[in-house]
Write a structure and sequence with these properties.
The protein is α+β, with helices and mostly antiparallel strands. The chain contains five helices and eleven strands. The strands form three sheets. A five-stranded mixed sheet has the order 4-11-10-6-8. The protein is elongated, with a radius of gyration of 32 Å.
């Protein structure tokens, strides 16, 4: 039989660990001399420095092929999407008589429309001629800063939040929803014809429950002068046009499913494979006691 190993005392184990951590006789730390540790650290420093340099070189080469002003590939986007404000899949006015249920929507609209104040627009943007595209060629100066056209908050009528109550109709059960078109660089909608936003109940049988809607500017029109958009680097003060939809007499205590579409010549908004192209759908519910 093999001889059993002698059991070591606790002091011997501690002494061995101390010697492993630092051996004053051989001057080794964790079993290696200072020169050995230096060579290891030098190797990893060179190795990871090489990897970092290779990554930096790859990123630099890639960035040389990217234009900071215009996306390199945008041929797949034929129709821009729409968004609503307040930003929510469902707008639940839990109780018209209890302001705390709809005040978050009012605050969100106030914040969103602050850059649209008439005074801000007059100071930053230009009064452009209506009814035509606001094309601004570079004239041999690449990425020359572009002039942005005014879109004044007052155009939204009772949905501008400028009245004595400033609640966008939520306090009276006639809420407003803002619809905006997503920005697309060098997008010319409408083929020189007027464009607008149209909204309706998603199902025809629900139209009577949804009731009449008012759109601001009138007919939900978006003027051509707000197009094209040249990108945030050169179109610094660009203000997206919005359309306000006010639900004047929606039936209370009922879920209303609403869909808004961009109506412009040459744009398809009925593609079932892309339900977000040129349209947006949301739910509205107004509760009353």
């Amino acid at each position: 039989m093999a001889r059993d190993k002698e059991k070591r005392s606790c002091g011997q184990v501690v002494a061995e660990w101390r010697a492993f951590l630092w051996d004053p006789r051989t001057r080794q730390f964790l079993g290696r001399t200072g020169s050995s540790w230096g060579l290891i650290l030098l190797f990893y420093l060179v190795f990871y420095g090489f990897l970092a340099g290779l990554f930096a070189l790859t990123m630099w080469v890639m960035l040389q092929s990217v234009d900071p002003h215009v996306p390199k590939y945008q041929d797949r986007l034929l129709t821009p999407g729409l968004m609503i404000r307040p930003c929510a899949e469902g707008l639940d006015v839990i109780n018209v008589s209890q302001s705390q249920t709809w005040q978050p929507y009012v605050r969100a609209l106030h914040q969103f429309l602050e850059p649209y104040n008439d005074s801000v627009q007059a100071a930053r943007n230009a009064a452009c001629p209506a009814g035509r595209y606001n094309e601004q060629p570079d004239d041999a100066v690449p990425n020359y800063p572009k002039r942005a056209c005014r879109f004044e908050r007052s155009q939204l009528g009772p949905c501008a939040g400028l009245g004595p109550h400033g609640d966008y109709g939520y306090g009276s059960g006639r809420p407003c929803v803002l619809v905006k078109v997503n920005r697309v660089i060098n997008f010319f909608p409408g083929k020189n014809k007027s464009i607008n936003i149209v909204c309706a109940a998603k199902r025809e049988e629900d139209a009577a429950l949804l009731g009449p809607m008012q759109l601001f500017p009138p007919n939900g029109t978006i003027d051509l002068m707000y197009f094209p958009y040249y990108g945030k680097r050169v179109h610094v003060n660009y203000t997206q046009p919005v359309v306000a939809v006010q639900f004047s007499n929606a039936t209370a205590n009922v879920d209303h499913h609403v869909e808004c579409r961009l109506n412009a010549a040459g744009l398809r908004t009925d593609d079932e494979r892309d339900k977000f192209a040129g349209r947006v759908a949301f739910r509205l519910r107004i509760n009353r006691d």
